[in-house]
Specification:
Blueprint: E1 5-6, E2 14-21, E3 25-34, E4 37-47, E5 51-52, E6 58-60, H1 62-80, E7 87-94, E8 100-102, E9 112-113, H2 121-128, E10 133-134, E11 137-138, H3 139-148, H4 159-169, H5 171-174, E12 179-181, H6 183-192, E13 196-197, H7 199-203, E14 208-209, E15 222-223, H8 225-230, E16 240-241, E17 247-250, H9 253-259, E18 266-268, E19 271-272, H10 273-281, E20 289-293, E21 297-303, E22 308-309, E23 314-318, E24 325-331, H11 335-357, H12 363-379, E25 389-391, E26 409-411, H13 419-441, E27 451-454, H14 461-471, E28 475-478, H15 484-496, H16 506-509, E29 512-516, H17 523-548
Parallel strand pairs: 2-7, 7-19, 13-16, 20-27, 27-28
Antiparallel strand pairs: 1-4, 2-3, 3-4, 5-6, 6-9, 8-12, 10-11, 14-15, 17-18, 20-21, 21-24, 22-23, 23-24, 25-26, 28-29
């Protein structure tokens, strides 16, 4: 667990607890809302494991998430000098497109399948790639999906195909399934005893009717019987859908005892990270864009209509604000690439430094200490990384191309390139991929600058500067960028409690902490390198398949 940070005794204002359940750790944040805005009273991060299996599976124990937030809650309350009874509400921001199948008592029937799990390639192939095709997808399933759901399950990592994988490979576990949940829904159910999903999570299943004409006055739709029939889904497994600022229920006594909160504390619907990170970054109006760099990463733009690009694997997901969508392009491994750098390129050199700072493995702490050191190392290498290009596809890729076989590449290493050149090339490679994503997003919708940069990676000055130079965009970071998702969840509580007038107020509440202007003299060099970067995948696609397609 990372050392807790706090803003002093919790005096005055209204306290809410917000949880951000990420890939490798849970952040617990205690926020205070008062007449002057919102402040972070205390925060803590607790790590948990993730299992990468030989067959492409990626799994987690859902109860690890629960134990982590229980530990985090007690830590932040103590750090802020607050009591459980001081907390007025709680909510969740969680990783999305996982699969948590539970029985009638809410117990998982098997480990959670992560958004990175790619075992269901065969189920996807049989389910949507046969017959008459457009863009490689079955026309009879593609068209109704685009009309009803506003997107289509075109990736082997989508929940529909994971669901089918479990049904085919683990029939005994599948026979005990009562509800299909995601990470947030599991935690909300454990807290309240109610199986409920928010529209963003429902939208991401591509079984939810998102047609504007079918939404009710609260912006809620319904599960589509037609989509369930088309994709052979048992609709009885799907939970009810509630709004992000709805109270799902009071915190149950047993759950309160485990979390360290007061029984009866209101639990709000919350949202997925794709929705709430944007809210917590202040990018909330049509045309606003944000860039997230955590374990995974994405580029997202706010739009007022449903959009989809099946060629680039980009789709819109319903946002926390009613009537708005997040048109999002995901990067499978973003900050994970920097963690790989830590483990395999530089840990031998900085191990003593990290040990002295007591920040060895916690991802939040390593972003606070390792990146401070990497800032110095990266800046000692000139832009362009001595000619080296890095492709950040360490666990396949989803957008703007979907290929579970893709892998990372160091390209164009010369005698003049050293370890620090490679480290800088990784940061530049992540930014190159972000530029490709932003370019793809702009094919369908307008994006106005500046781009808000959040997530753990945004704590690095050097990476923020590289993002601005490579993207050719003004990039802004915010205070505590690693907590943007938790702040988004806290703002949902604040809206539900009447502490803010509308979620659009996030634009005024979340102000830039630093601004990075792209350097005009680097535009030509990075433009040339970007052209080569995009060709790396197509040139190597058959080689990736030859090496990795036989799992």
């Amino acid at each position: 667990m990372s050392a807790p940070t706090g803003g002093g005794p919790a005096t005055g204002g209204t306290l809410v607890v917000a949880y951000d359940i990420g890939t490798t750790g849970a952040k617990t944040c205690l926020y205070r809302f008062d007449g002057s805005g919102v402040t972070l009273a205390a925060n803590a991060t607790v790590e948990y494991g993730i299992r990468f299996l030989p067959d492409g599976g990626v799994e987690q124990d859902p109860d690890d998430w629960w134990r982590a937030i229980g530990s985090g809650t007690r830590t932040v309350l103590a750090a802020a000098g607050a009591k459980a009874s001081d907390v007025r509400a709680a909510s969740f921001c969680c990783q999305m497109q996982g699969l948590v199948l539970v029985d009638a008592a809410g117990r998982p029937v098997r480990p959670a399948m992560s958004y990175m799990d790619q075992r269901a390639s065969e189920q996807k192939r049989r389910g949507i790639e046969r017959g008459v095709k457009v863009a490689g997808l079955n026309l009879r399933k593609l068209l109704p999906s685009l009309v009803v759901a506003g997107g289509v399950s075109a990736s082997a990592k989508d929940p529909i195909w994971k669901y089918h994988w479990v049904r085919e490979h683990e029939p005994e576990a599948f026979a005990r399934v009562h509800r299909w949940l995601d990470a947030k829904e599991y935690l909300v159910a454990k807290a309240t005893g109610r199986f409920a999903m928010t529209p963003d999570s429902a939208n991401a299943t591509f079984l939810y009717d998102t047609r504007p004409s079918r939404l009710d006055a609260d912006g809620l739709g319904s599960w589509s019987p037609a989509m369930c029939r088309l994709f052979d889904i048992d609709s009885s497994h799907l939970p009810e859908v509630v709004g992000p600022t709805d109270v799902v229920g009071p915190l149950l006594p047993a759950a309160a005892a485990e979390l360290g909160l007061k029984p009866g504390t209101p639990i709000y619907g919350g949202g997925g990270d794709l929705s709430l990170v944007g809210l917590g970054s202040g990018a909330v109006e049509p045309g606003d864009a944000h860039l997230y760099m955590g374990t995974s990463g994405w580029v997202s733009a706010v739009t007022d209509r449903r959009l989809v690009d099946t060629d680039a694997m980009i789709a819109s997901v319903m946002g926390a604000r009613r009537g708005l969508y997040n048109y999002m392009s995901e990067q499978e491994t973003s900050g994970k690439c920097m963690e790989w750098v830590k483990d395999h390129l530089v840990l031998d050199e900085v191990g003593a430094y990290l040990g002295a700072r007591n920040a060895a493995e916690d991802p939040d702490a390593s972003y606070g200490s390792l990146f401070e050191l990497l800032d110095e190392s990266i800046e000692e290498v000139a832009p362009g990384a001595d000619g080296v290009l890095f492709a950040p596809w360490l666990h396949g890729n989803r957008s703007p191309f979907e290929d579970p076989n893709a892998r990372g590449i160091f390209f164009n290493i010369g005698l003049g390139a050293g370890k620090r050149s490679l480290v800088r090339s990784v940061a530049e490679g992540i930014a190159m991929h972000n530029r490709w994503q932003l370019e793809s997003i702009r094919r369908k919708t307008s994006v106005r600058g500046p781009v808000r940069f959040v997530g753990g990676g945004a704590r690095s000055r050097s990476i923020a500067r590289i993002m601005a130079d490579v993207l050719g965009e003004v990039v802004e970071t915010v205070e505590s960028p690693q907590n943007a998702g938790a702040l988004g969840a806290a703002l949902l509580c604040a809206r539900g409690l009447g502490l803010v007038g509308t979620l659009a107020d996030a634009k005024a509440i979340v102000k830039p902490a630093a601004v990075y202007e792209p350097r005009a003299e680097l535009a030509g060099m990075y433009g040339d390198r970007f052209g080569v970067f995009k060709r790396l995948y197509e040139r190597n696609k058959p080689l990736f398949a030859a090496l990795n397609g036989g799992r």
